[in-house]
Amino acid sequence: MPTPPPEQERPSTLQGDYNPAEYSAEYKLLYLQGLVADRAFEDITTFLDKQSEYEIASLLESFPTQNRLLIWEQVPDNIKGEVLAELEVDTRQPLMENISSKEISLFTQDLDAQDISEILDTVTDSVRTSVMATLDEDIRVQVNKLDTYADWEVGSYMDPDLIQVRDDITLAEVQEWLRDNDDLLDDESQELLVVDQSQQLLGLLSLVDLIKHDQTTLVSVLIDPAVTINDRFDITDAAAIFRSEDIRFAPVINSHGELVGQLNGEDIMEIIQDDVDSTMKNLAGVSQDEELFAPILTSAKSRSIWLGINLCTALLAAAVIGQFEAVLAKVVALAILMPVVASMGGIAGSQTLTVVIRGMAMGQIGGSNRLWLLNKELWVGAINGMIWAIIMAFIAQLWFHDIKISAVIGLAIAINMTAANVSGISIPLLLKRMNIDPALSASVILTTVTDIVGFMSFLGLASVLIL
Asked: Which residues, in sequence order, are bridge partners of residue 301?
């Protein structure tokens, strides 16, 4: 196995008989950066020809826009469709601006309905119409079906291409049908979907049962129950079902109980990843649409909104401090120690907030356990608050040799850390009840609460005990 290059060293070649699995993503990125810098177009084409569509998509998203266009031109035509389907919308759109409808039709020839629908979401209506006219009738129907769903609905993520059998045929007939259509099953298939004459889903037929039972047995005798998901269900709720039921796929039915598609594990993994990315960006006050290599002005604009909101909350905290100008003027030590109180509260609250928002995303918080968690965080905050209050009071005593200052900083930290933990769980719960995404605004509100409570308790206690 080749030795990875040092962190700042750009690999000049991929040694020996190239095996993509032997090289890390960072190694490949550094190597491709070298080829792009040298404008080695033939080498870029050769390199990309040995990568999967997932790897190429990841590499494209790791370059600024101008370099993406250069790399895209070297992507082999036979895989361009798969790569486009794997790209994020903001990355895909600029690449498709100069692609004709004829080229898109060629790229999508061998793609499934899900991938085609994904690609056509980023083209004009006229291009879409032209491409749709070139599709097979079955694929065109499936794409149109997917497009009837909202982005957040299960139906927009399901695979409409189904392998289904009727309940009134024998196992022998099923096997004969599968042998005549040997491309239907892949290596991961374990069950077949069973429907009746009116396309009502009845359940699943295990491939093990298909083989081991008498071949004259009717399918209806061996039907296993299936965990189903409604096509209008929220996709994040569907992901929670996959986790709780530990299933690999789920049949998708409409409101009439008719089978319309299936939701696969890989689709759910994509949803979970997108949800994680969205939560991380929201917690940091970054737009969900901002990508790593977005243009400078785009990133600046998306972040400025939350920076403005944060400035307003900071001014509110400053106004609270201004009410205690007299005590700060007389005791300089308070100005030195004041940031410690806000910082300890902020960290304690953020720890609780992160755990709570993750629990919400996993569907673990609801009903009576909310009160239990609130009580738990109250005690966690109180215990940690007391521990660090004593430690900080001891440090302040060694520093300033003033028992009153030590008492003020200790009590303020205990109060603020307790309040921070309680706020860390109560704020997201309240926002969820108001139908506001907790990940989007909870951190800003929490910062405001911990700053105000911290400054009020610290300076208020100083006014009482010192002045």
From this structure: none
Among residues 323, 337, 321, 317, the alpha carbon closest in space to that of 451 is found at: 317
**Burial call 18-39: b when 16+ CB within 10 Å, e when fewer:** eeeeebeeebbbbbbbebbeee
Residues in the chain: 467
> What pLDDT is recorded for position 179?
87
Query: Could you identify the residue written with the tokens 């995404």?
Result: 437
Q: Is the pTM of this model over 0.70?
A: no
Give the model's pLDDT for residue 299. Answer: 61
Question: 317: left (phi > 0), else alpha (psi -120 to 50), else beta?
Answer: alpha
Question: Token digits for 302?
Answer: 């998306």
Cβ–Cβ < 8 Å for 101, 150: no
For residue 332, what pLDDT is reported? 81
Whole-angstrom CA distances from 110 to 40, 213, 248, 260, 270 are 30, 36, 25, 22, 22
